[in-house]
Amino acid sequence: MHEHYYPLPGGPVLILGRDTPFPPLQEALTDPNGLIAIGGDLQPERLIAAYKQGIFPWFSPEEPILWWSPDPRMVLFPESLNINRSLRKVIQQRPFDIRFNTDFKQVMQACAQTPRPGQPGTWISHEMVEAYHQLHLMGYAHSVEAWQQDQLVGGCYGVKIGRMFYGESMFHHVSNASKVAFAHLVQWLNAQQVGMIDCQMHTPLLAGFGAYEIPRDRFIAQLNELVQYDAT
């Protein structure tokens, strides 16, 4: 099969056809960090294959699908979750009704629609919402939701394959709502024997929870062990 590549300043990037497999991670660019392929589709089989290899889609609505595997990788080990004193007090006050998987699509839509400082738009397009909703119906994608008076005020979602979890996005309309939801998510994942949470890239919020960067080689080695437990 003849492969096509798109030239970029950082090097050529593979263009995915319908049946084109992802290239070896060694082909990921260093500039931009981790770009490994362009194109393809967001069918469940493609998404699951990507996540199992430590690859995720991230692109703007006007762009073709871009696939990434950055180095280093931001991760959180559930047993090492850090909840600071102020957040612990909030959790003890129980200001939110925490629910799991009761309105996955609404969580994704809220993540897409919530304005973020320094970001002019969202990468969570309608196409992405529908694709991940399919993963949710298949048992792979999960949401944790913070509700107040039957109003969704915060939450987060991601993809679970075996004992590996891939965090995708979070939002809040009320102070601390997403943080409380995330803390409950990590505790639930720990109870599910999930060994590692992929946070993708560094943010101060995730670092505050105890996440840190590890080399991609270490990330992939641990991921390969954890996804073997997939029985969905």
What is the CATH superfamily classification of the largest domain?
Leucyl/phenylalanyl-tRNA-protein transferase, C-terminal domain
Major pleated sheet: 7 strands, mixed
Regions with little confidence, pLDDT below 50 for 5+ residues:
none
Helix share bin: 25-40%
End-to-end Cα distance, whole Å, is: 32 Å
Rg on CA atoms, Å: 18 Å
Total domain modules: 2
Oligomer: single chain
CATH fold type of the largest domain: Aminopeptidase
Q: What is the CATH class of the largest domain? A: Alpha Beta
The CATH architecture category of the largest domain equals: 3-Layer(aba) Sandwich
Strand content: 25-35%
Number of strands: 12
What is the residue-mean pLDDT, rounded to a whole number? 94
Order of helices and strands: EEEHEEEHEHHEEEHEHEH
Tell me, briefly, the overall form. Answer: globular
Question: Counting H and I runs of at least 4 residues, what is the number of helices?
Answer: 7
User: Going across the major beta sheet, what is the strand order?
Assistant: 7-8-9-10-11-6-12
How would you summarize the topology of this molecule?
Layout: E1 4-8, E2 11-16, E3 35-39, H1 44-52, E4 56-57, E5 66-68, E6 73-76, H2 85-93, E7 97-100, H3 104-113, H4 126-137, E8 141-148, E9 151-161, E10 164-172, H5 177-191, E11 196-200, H6 204-208, E12 212-214, H7 216-226
Parallel strand pairs: 2-3, 10-11
Antiparallel strand pairs: 1-2, 3-5, 4-5, 6-11, 6-12, 7-8, 8-9, 9-10
Helix pairs in contact: 3-4
